[in-house]
Specification:
This protein is mostly beta strands. It contains four helices and 27 strands. It comes from Vicia faba.
Length: 411
C-alpha cells in the first residue's frame, strides 16, 4: 500500500514525499510492473519538480550495483468514479472503458513514451525543477471528463544484480544471460526489455545465495496551486529511434506515422578504430514538431556507454546538449561505472524558440569499444507556447517560413 510520508510548504511551493507500493527482488531477479492509483497531490496544481530513487524498508538509498534502476515512468490517466479498485499490476487496465490514458505532447505512436515524468539510473543527480513562473498543469476540472477523476500510475523496471555473473550484461538485458527463449525475437535481437521482462531471472555466479528484500520507489513532488500567474508548459519526449512516415494527406497540417522503437543495439567497432580511439556510434533522427514554442527545460536519457546527446534546430543551432556523468565510488548516487546524472538545459525564457513545423534533429552518441544492447537515446523538453505577460498568438506553418530568416534573432 502506498505510504504518505511528509508535506511542507515553503514560499507557496508545496512538497510531499511518497512511497510506491512495495516490490520484492532477490539476486538476479527483475521487476517491470505497473502500479495504479499511486499517491499524488490533488487539485488544480502546477507541478514544479518530480524526483525519485529506490530505497529499502528502512528508507536507506539502494545503490545501482545492487538494484539497477533501468527506468521508472509516471503517467496520468482518468478513472471512472464508480470503479472502486485503485491499484493494479497490469498495463492492460488502460484498455477498458473505465480508464483513459492522458498523454503528454510527445510524438511517438499510440501509448509509447506517453509519460509525464521518468528517467533511469541517473535519477538521483539529474535536475528536474521547472523555473518560475512555469509549471506542468494538472487537475484542471474543465479538462477531466464528466464522471471521471485524475489518477496516476508508475512503471518500475529494476534489476537486482547482487551475485550476477555479468552485472553490466544484466543491466543491458542481454538475452543470453536471462532465462528466456529468444527465437521469437529474431537472431539480431541480442538484448533489451523483451529479455528482462517482469519476473525474469539473470544468471548468477555459481553457488551465490542471497535473501529477497522489500524495496520501494520513493518519490518527491513539488507543486504550487494553480492561478493565472502560472505559465503552462507542454511535455515532449523525442526518441532517436523514431522513423517517420509522412502521409500524403496534409489537409489538417502535418500528418505522419511515428515508429518509436525505444531501444537499439550498439555494435562494437573494428580493431583499427579501437587503436585510433575512434570508437563512437552515432544515431540520429529528424522529426518535425507541429506546434513549437519556447524551450524552458531539456534533458537527454542514455544508458551505460553513452557519451551524450544533442537536440538541434532546423538551421543547425544547438537547442540543448545533455552529457552523462559517471560515478566513481561505491555509495548510492556515485556508483562507479554507472550513469548517475544527466546535464540539463535551462535557457533564459524566450532565448530558445522552436517554430511551428520546424524539423528537429536528435543525435545520440555511444562509445562502442564493446557492444551495448538495449540502449536508449531519448530527449525530454518542456515547451511554453507563450512567455509571461505576453498575449498568446498561435503561429501557423506559414509563420515558420516568414520567421525563418529571423530565427537567430529570436534565439
Amino acid at each position: 500500500m502506498t505510504l504518505y510520508i511528509n508535506m511542507r510548504t515553503e514560499n507557496k511551493i508545496k512538497s510531499a514525499v511518497f512511497l510506491s507500493p512495495k516490490f520484492e527482488l532477490g539476486p538476479g531477479s527483475v521487476i517491470n510492473r505497473y502500479f495504479y492509483g499511486i499517491d499524488f497531490p490533488k487539485g488544480h496544481i502546477a507541478v514544479k519538480s518530480f524526483n525519485s530513487e529506490v530505497v529499502d524498508e528502512a528508507g536507506h538509498s539502494v545503490p545501482l550495483h545492487e538494484t539497477y534502476l533501468h527506468h521508472w515512468l509516471v503517467a496520468r490517466y482518468y478513472q471512472h468514479k464508480h470503479v472502486t479498485h485503485t491499484e493494479f499490476d497490469s498495463h492492460r487496465m488502460l484498455q477498458d472503458s473505465n480508464h483513459v490514458l492522458v498523454r503528454n505532447n510527445g510524438l511517438c505512436q499510440g501509448n509509447v513514451l506517453r509519460q509525464y515524468f521518468g528517467v533511469g539510473s541517473e535519477t538521483r543527480r539529474t535536475e528536474t525543477h521547472i523555473p518560475d513562473p512555469f509549471g506542468i498543469e494538472i487537475g484542471n476540472p474543465k479538462e477531466i471528463p464528466e464522471g471521471f477523476e485524475d489518477k496516476w500510475l508508475v512503471n518500475i523496471h529494476a534489476i537486482d544484480t547482487r551475485g550476477a555473473e555479468d552485472k553490466l550484461g544484466c543491466t543491458e538485458c542481454k538475452c543470453d544471460l536471462y532465462n528466456v527463449t529468444v527465437d521469437e525475437y529474431g537472431p539480431d535481437y541480442k538484448g533489451g526489455m523483451l529479455c528482462c521482462s517482469d519476473y525474469a531471472q539473470c544468471k548468477l555466479k555459481e553457488g551465490f545465495e542471497g535473501a529477497k528484500r522489500s524495496l520501494y520507489l520513493r518519490y518527491t513532488v513539488k507543486w504550487v496551486d494553480w492561478d493565472d500567474s502560472v505559465v503552462p508548459v507542454k511535455i515532449y519526449v523525442i526518441d532517436v529511434t523514431d522513423t517517420l512516415k509522412l502521409s500524403d494527406d496534409n489537409s489538417e497540417g502535418i500528418n505522419s506515422d511515428h515508429n518509436c522503437k525505444i531501444e537499439y543495439q550498439v555494435d562494437s567497432c573494428s580493431a583499427d578504430h579501437k587503436e585510433g580511439n575512434g570508437c563512437v556510434d552515432v544515431m540520429k533522427t529528424s522529426i518535425p514538431l507541429q506546434t513549437g514554442g519556447y524551450v524552458i527545460y531539456a534533458v537527454g536519457h542514455q544508458h551505460s556507454g553513452g557519451i551524450g546527446s544533442t537536440l538541434y534546430g532546423q538551421d543547425g543551432r544547438v537547442i540543448c546538449s545533455s552529457i552523462p556523468s559517471y560515478g566513481n565510488g561505491n555509495e548510492a548516487g556515485n556508483e562507479s561505472g554507472y550513469i548517475v546524472g544527466m546535464s540539463t538545459c535551462y535557457p533564459k525564457p524566450g532565448s530558445v524558440k522552436i517554430l511551428d513545423g520546424e524539423t528537429l534533429t536528435l543525435v545520440s552518441i555511444y562509445n562502442n569499444t564493446k557492444e551495448h544492447a538495449g540502449v536508449m537515446g531519448l530527449f525530454n523538453i518542456l515547451v511554453a507556447e507563450q512567455l509571461p505577460y505576453q498575449p498568446f498568438t498561435h503561429s501557423t506553418r506559414s509563420s515558420f517560413i516568414m520567421d525563418s530568416n529571423n530565427m537567430l534573432l529570436d534565439n
